[in-house]
Amino acid sequence: MTEQTTSSTGKATTLARFVIGKVERIQGGLVDQQSSAAKATAARLRRALERPAGSVPEVWEITLGGFPESLIGHGDDPSAAEQAAHTALCLFAIHQQSQGVRMHQSGWGLGRSLRLLHQKLGGSDDLDSGPLIRRFNALSTADSLDEVLWHLRGLITQLRAAGIPLDYGRLVRDLYRYSVPEYRDSVRLRWGRDFYTYRPEATEDPSVTDSSVSPSDNSLT
User: Fold this and answer.
1) Taking residues 127-137, what's their average pLDDT?
2) pLDDT band for position 130 (50/70/90)?
3) Which pLDDT score is estimated for 124?
4) From what superkingdom does this record's organism come (predicted)?
């Protein structure tokens, strides 16, 4: 592993921990406490989804408050980490909307969640056709984060409708690394492995998955 790769991995881990902390705070307020403040925060995040990171003052506290110093941008544009965190938090707010169970759960990588969605939608066993497969392929071949966001928003909405969770620590890590062209293939490989090697059980209930995150969680490495 090169020094550059090691540095990128460390930054991705730091970013994932930041986002997980924010997500769990909002999620706890929504699911456990049914807090009006948490509902207002989530609504602001949903409205900010398609805006650049840092351009919406009403979400600064949640997207920038306590942001890791090593990942803060220094120019006029948001850093890749700032944009990835903003996007992941806004997508989580969409995913958790009107849900009584936790939509952020550790271990549910994007490919795994979409594979279960494919099954719930009655997709074919050959995994080479159907609307969801086409959208997943379009996401995986996207040339920009804007294109990734376009496809992700629709997929997250489908996951919400099916009650399928997602690990937002993993997602922000993937978004951050996808912003660097040389790392995109590694993200695609992760998504492909998760989707095509996962074997969902017919009776699987994601709502009972443990959402806790340990320091050694392999989604952060």
Assistant:
1) 89
2) confident
3) 73
4) Bacteria
| 59, amino acid identity | V
The model's pTM is: 0.88
Residue indicated by tokens 């969801």: 132
Q: Which residue has the tokens 């939608």?
A: 121
The number of folded domains in the chain is 1
**Interior CA angle at 219 toward 177 and 59, to 5°?**
65
Give the CATH number, domain containing residue 113: 1.10.520.40
